[in-house]
Amino acid sequence: MQRATIVKSLSLAWVALSLGGLGTSSALAATTATPETAPITQTAAPTATQPKPGSPEYPAYLADQVAQYGDVKDTLIPLEGTKNTRDIGGYKTADGKWQIRQNRLLRSDNLSKLTPSDATKLSKDHHVTSIVDLRTPGQQSKQPDKAIPGASLTSISILGNLADTNGKGDGEFYNWQLEFGYHAVTGYHQFLNMLLTNPNATLYHCSSGKDRTGIGTVLIMTILGMDRKTIINDFLQSNQTGRHVERAWIMEYYREILARYGTMDKYINDLLKFTPAQQDQLRAKYLISTDGQNTSYPAATNPSAPQVPSTPAPTPTPAPEPSKPTQPNTQTPTKPTPNKPAQNKPTQSGKPHKKQPKAKIVSMKKFNTTFNYRLKANKKTFKDAYLHKLKGHTPKKSVKKWKLVKVAKVKFKGKITTHYQVKDRAGHQVWLLKGHVVKIHK
């Protein structure tokens, strides 16, 4: 993901990276503990280069994708104007007792090329009455959605005003823009709340229906109780529609969340502020039994009863977390807003909060070098050069070889420093000061 001469200013107050609270999962009781729900400790290796549709290698690649991850045609809605419109209805929970209702949750790429017959089909056959556009305002203005009769349109830009993806994603893009980015946190919160109010079908989409839409689907299916294998398979089926996603991206997404929150449930509850009571309402709204009776999933709480958001897990860092949102009204969803650091307000230790400094990216360049690097012993590593977020230190005896991925010039506290992003063979990435890496020959 190349970002050249782009200047960004990101406040630490915008991102709540809770490093504690590794509690057990409170997800749907029917979701049993399996290897797919166990913590991820290592990133999966990137997949091979995807051949282009129409190339001689593509049929074999497509057959391999179907064999590994299932056939996208099982959920695909054939339309003339889109490639990646799917009904996620029919997916079963981990214990097989419940499934998602048909014609209620549709994921898609953009709707700018919908034909009149496409629009009629989505309206009459799939009962779409709500469209959620996850693209940026610029993307929407360049390729505006075609209207679907009787359907409202809501814009929720998951990337804010700038889509810095160059038309593709990568592991870092998922981690820091779709997991912890301010607009992603507030946007997915609003999106999940909207799903509680629509009595018919919601179609949600981005540009290609694979990244922002893919993560929205991961969140929905996690709450509804699908196991991780099912969720990953659905994510990777975008490859069968001519799009490009990699298993390494979604595995890194899981790994980063579980490293900070312990479970996906805690991430959804503590950072996205979508409470257990709301999650239970979502299951009651979208799950039915698989025994042929189509019995609705029983709600554990009274939907009309007041909901109380759970208290976020304490964080050992002074960086403020997004404040608890006012309890969402089922008719008008609210979104979490970041707290502003209180000036001269004593903390538990008696020390006043200090306003968090901002970091600016002066320049960014992507590399693909043939050289290897070693890290100097016991040097500070940063998980994110933009936020200057300290991760830890390099080992005292560093023998592992790394590849240079990116170089960035960062202005922090009035000083410009150069950072290298390096990656090991397992796909783990860290940022270090330029002087803390040593180049060696291949």
TrEMBL record:
It comes from the Bacteria. Gene3D superfamilies: Protein tyrosine phosphatase superfamily. It comes from Levilactobacillus fuyuanensis. The keyword Chloroplast does not apply. Residues 38-58, 293-361 are annotated as: Disordered. Residues 1-29 form the signal peptide. This is Tyrosine-protein phosphatase. Residues 293-302 have a biased composition (Polar residues). Residues 38-49 have a biased composition (Low complexity). SUPFAM superfamilies: (Phosphotyrosine protein) phosphatases II. It holds the Pfam family Y_phosphatase3. Keywords: Signal. The lineage of its organism: Bacteria, Bacillati, Bacillota, Bacilli, Lactobacillales. Residues 309-325 have a biased composition (Pro residues). The keyword Transport does not apply.
